[in-house]
Amino acid sequence: MKLFGFVISALVVLSVFGNNCCCAEKVRYDNHTVYKVLIENENQLTIVKHLSTLAKGYNLWKPFHGIGSDAHIMVSPKMKNAFDSLMELNGFEKEILVENVQSLIDEESSSFERDATFGWTSYHGLDKIYAWIDEIIEENSDLITPFTIGKSYEGRDIRGIKISAKEGNPGIFIETNVHAREWITSATVTYFINELLNSDRAEIKNLRENIDWYIIPVYNVDGFVYSHEKDRMWRKTRQPVKGSDCIGADANRNFDSHWMENGGALSDPCAETFAGPKPFSEPEAQALADFVTKIEDKINIYLSFHSYGQYLLCPYGHSATDFPSNYEDLLAIGKSAADAIKKPYGTQFTYGSTGSVLYVASGTSVDWMFNERNIKVGWTFEFRDKGRYGFVLPATHIKPNAKEAVEGVIALVQKSSDLGYLKNKRVN
After folding, report:
1. Is the model's pLDDT at 411 over the cut of 90?
2. Host H or E run for residue 213
């Protein structure tokens, strides 16, 4: 009774604050604290499941796998006393990862002022990224072909580029920033693009000359803009949900592959992992699926860039106990990539299937590409860090993270080639 009393009290208090911020000013996170919470029994798992569905007062940064896993939860100062009491009453082991989220955001914002030009010493908004894309298209018209997969709910173009040196190459597709607050992903992929175009390293020249690259630098464009202009912690899309005050869905739970199975997404519109009212309800997910379907015979590998946690994740996401028929090959590829990522700075990545090493996640883009489009090498990169900064990774980490990612991709491509996954899927 005490457990449910505390949970219900929290829900009542949260209802006073509302479920969605519609204010004109930027959302601030002064004295919001991120806790690492260890889940050791069914009672604790039930509590964390309740907290993970609350849209105001609590914000789930790192989802949980079940008993024996941990969750990272941002707690507002208004909810701190209730949270501390709930943790103490139910015997949780917890630690503070981030004392004051706003201080990290302020530090991050100051880097914008220091970097007036496009580069990799600060994060950039959508307009600046698109302007840079226009520049490199003009400068590399022999290599780059622009494309647009469709429009977002708010009418923005979801743009991409194809980098191709010659006909007949196998293809690799990269999608980033499906989750708006994961800024390190678009920063890393623009760095990777720059390396592809300009590096003299033999390994990267090989990638440029012998692979066709299809890259979307910002996929969830509406959410990304909102995360820059209104709410740094925004994750989802921006399409309203019928019958709810909450906005958006998790576009990486919205694909029609084991959608909503095994608890791998939530039906609550206020939850961070809300799967949408139906598969492909989000125009962004539908646009990506339609585009890849048209060119699936050209794509051998699909990569999705995310943060954080330092993981390399392959199918399946919808189950912790089922594995693809080529799982041994995928593990070999993952090991090669993780070993390469570790070389520059010693950064350790864990690799394996999403469901078995991290958490069950159903309806993801990588699983849909694998299951429905026959792209048998699919990986999700979860970049730095382990939680010290989480989603607000300082700009000083952009280049180190990007350099690690480049090494990881080089190794991933090489091992995939060794195992026969880069053979042409079509006749040109």
Report:
1. yes
2. strand 212-216
Q: Looking at the predicted structure, is the pLDDT value of residue 3 above 50?
A: no
Q: Which of 195, 284, 382, 407 is catalytic?
A: 382
Pick from 216, 415, 237, 221: nearest CA to 312: 415
Q: Is a pLDDT exceeding 50 seen at residue 18?
A: no
Question: Which DSSP state fits 26?
Answer: P
Going from the C-alpha of 24 to that of each of 53, 156, 390, the distances in angstroms are 25, 20, 26
Strand partners, 171: 212
Closest CA to 250 of 206, 215, 285: 285
pLDDT, tens digit (0-9, with 9 covering 90-100), for 153-169? 999 999 999 999 999 99
Tokens of 78: 């208004």
Residue 200 identity (one-letter amino acid) = D
Report the candidate in 167, 185, 349 with the shortest Cα–Cα distance to residue 252: 185
State the residue for tokens 């580029």. 161
pTM of the entire predicted model: 0.93
Residue 179 has what DSSP assignment?
A: S
* Bridging pattern class, strands 301-307 and 377-383: parallel
pLDDT value, residue 172: 98
Other Cβ atoms less than 10 A from the Cβ of 100: the count is 15
Kindly list the structural domains of the chain, giving each domain's residue range(s) and its CATH number in brackets, ordered by start: 18-99 (3.30.70.340), 118-418 (3.40.630.10)
Q: What letter does residue 27 receive in the DSSP assignment?
A: P
Residue 407 falls in the annotated catalytic set: no
Q: How many helices (H) and strands (E) does the chain have?
A: 13, 12
